[in-house]
């Protein structure tokens, strides 16, 4: 009697075995599997009693979606394939996961594995389909028992990971039997590979009775809060703490965040939290601290201008007194070279007074005035920024209030739903069923409203975050400009002061020269010539 075999090409049907021939690699693989005792062990390893729906599950008979639907899906290799024998072939071993890039009619698909793309026969793989649950690897597959409350799972890439069913902590490393936390935790969202657009940290091939997937295994008729139906979301959900309507990571689970501008001590990295107002019992935001810094800088700039104004007054008064002093006719009758030096000294006072008048004038135009007029509208600009950020913070507070209100409403609806479910169990009637359906509908609506409020809150906080970063960087830039401006004008002050000293020195040079030229002998000669009374000296009287 001729043998018949079941096969699939577009559809499943029977065909005479004499009309078909297995590929050499497939035939050798089948013979090896038939001789291998591991087949029964593999089947026994995964009892059917613990194989409900899994996030990626293998069916006894593969199902092939249309070629258009295959792109982006995943499949598991059934037999080894040596792609080197084919042009642009993709090599793999049995049991590996391949991502389908495109599936063309004719039985050849293009796939990607470990960053390598190539073609392979579609008959060598089996499509992995999505359903709705998780699975736990059997403990028989483990070398030794796991510590209490730890379960082992398999990712779609075939890699084991471990979950603590008490706190949902996840790690790639096998936990030791001694108490403690595994070394490398997978709390971050992207710690595990993403498959088909969703995070697969909760995905595995088989399913066990444990709290890790308790929410997923709930019946669709049971009340579930939005956002808690996914074990991946629950597992990756880190505890948060909200302070003054701003949400931060919980200190207990806080990991070191990467600074936006490392090693720069930038404003945008260190002013997110609020702090107690030193002038009252309230709180002031980090942005208000930055604004106070800016306003204080503006005040310091104003006080510096006032200081320069006082310096100008001193210069003016000093110049006035020097000029007045130079005109006093004291010692004006001094004669000779000393008299000339004295006259030049008095004249130098007038010259010095002129130098100080010019110095005070330049101080006013080149130092004081720029300090006063720099950013005349600075306070108005700061007030505008303050109002803008304050409005965003008020919006954030309103959004958070709406979230809390929606959360309370959802809790009330769930309590009402639980009550209606209990009433339905005790009293089977169409009215009780209608009440239960109505309560479920309201609970679902409350959950949708909570999700909507959470989305709006997150959007508002994201906008507030972006504005804080942008504005704080702008304030940082303004502070740098202010400091640089003041530095330049103070340098101008010192330059003018040095110039004043140079001019004053130049007024002293003639005085120094005349003082060096003072000659008492010459002065005596001149004076004697002008004032002599006679050269004949008296003589003795003779008798």
Automatic annotation (TrEMBL):
Residues 70-130 form the SH3 domain. Residues 263-523 form the F-BAR domain. It comes from the Eukaryota. Keywords: Coiled coil, SH3 domain. GO terms for cellular component: clathrin-coated pit; clathrin-coated vesicle; plasma membrane. Residues 144-177 form the WW domain. Residues 170-184, 221-233 have a biased composition (Polar residues). This is Growth arrest-specific protein 7. It comes from Oryzias melastigma (Marine medaka).
């Amino acid at each position: 009697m001729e043998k018949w075999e079941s096969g699939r090409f577009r559809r499943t049907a029977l065909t005479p075995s004499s009309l078909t021939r297995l590929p050499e690699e497939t035939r050798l693989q089948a013979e090896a599997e038939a001789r291998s005792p591991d087949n029964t062990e593999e089947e026994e390893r995964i009892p059917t009693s613990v194989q409900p729906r899994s996030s990626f599950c293998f069916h006894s008979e593969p199902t092939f979606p249309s070629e258009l639907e295959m792109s982006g899906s995943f499949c598991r290799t059934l037999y080894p394939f040596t792609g080197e024998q084919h042009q642009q072939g993709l090599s793999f071993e049995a049991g590996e996961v391949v991502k389908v890039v495109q599936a063309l009619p004719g039985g050849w698909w293009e796939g990607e594995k470990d960053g390598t793309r190539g073609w392979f026969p579609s008959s060598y793989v089996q499509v992995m389909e999505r359903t709705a649950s998780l699975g736990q690897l059997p403990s028989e597959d483990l070398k030794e028992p796991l510590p209490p409350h730890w379960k082992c799972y398999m990712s779609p890439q075939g890699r084991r990971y471990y979950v603590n069913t008490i706190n949902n902590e996840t790690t790639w490393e096998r936990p030791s039997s001694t108490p403690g936390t595994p070394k490398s935790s997978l709390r971050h969202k992207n710690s595990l590979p993403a498959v088909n657009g969703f995070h697969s940290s909760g995905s595995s091939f088989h399913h066990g009775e444990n709290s890790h997937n308790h929410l997923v295994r709930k019946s669709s008729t049971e009340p579930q809060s939005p956002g808690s139906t996914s074990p991946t979301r629950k597992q990756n959900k880190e505890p948060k703490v909200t302070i003054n309507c701003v949400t931060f990571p919980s200190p207990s689970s806080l990991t070191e965040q990467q600074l936006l501008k490392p090693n720069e001590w930038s404003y945008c990295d260190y002013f997110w939290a609020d702090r107690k107002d030193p002038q009252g019992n309230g709180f002031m935001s980090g942005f208000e601290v930055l604004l106070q810094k800016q306003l204080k800088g503006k005040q310091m700039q104003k006080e510096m201008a006032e200081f320069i104004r006082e310096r100008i007054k001193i210069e003016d008064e000093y110049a006035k007194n020097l000029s007045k002093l130079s005109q006093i006719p004291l010692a004006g009758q001094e004669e000779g070279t000393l008299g000339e030096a004295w006259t030049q000294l008095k004249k130098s006072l007038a010259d010095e007074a002129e130098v100080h008048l010019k110095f005070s004038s330049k101080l006013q135009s080149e130092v004081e005035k720029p300090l006063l007029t720099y950013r005349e509208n600075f306070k108005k600009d700061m007030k505008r920024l303050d109002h803008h950020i304050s409005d965003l913070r008020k919006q954030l507070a309103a959004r958070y209030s709406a979230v809390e209100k929606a959360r309370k409403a959802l809790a009330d609806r769930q309590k009402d739903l639980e009550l209606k479910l209990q009433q339905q169990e005790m009293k089977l009637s169409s009215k009780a069923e209608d009440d239960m359906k109505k309560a479920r509908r309201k609970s679902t609506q409350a959950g949708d409203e909570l999700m909507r409020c959470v989305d709006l809150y997150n959007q508002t906080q994201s906008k507030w975050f972006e504005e804080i970063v942008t504005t704080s960087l702008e304030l940082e830039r303004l502070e740098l400009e202010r400091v640089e401006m003041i530095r330049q004008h103070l340098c101008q002050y010192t330059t003018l002061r040095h110039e004043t000293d140079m001019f004053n020195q130049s007024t002293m040079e003639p005085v120094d020269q005349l003082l060096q030229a003072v000659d008492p002998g010459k002065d005596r000669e001149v004076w004697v010539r002008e004032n002599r009374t006679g050269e004949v000296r008296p003589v003795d009287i003779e008798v």
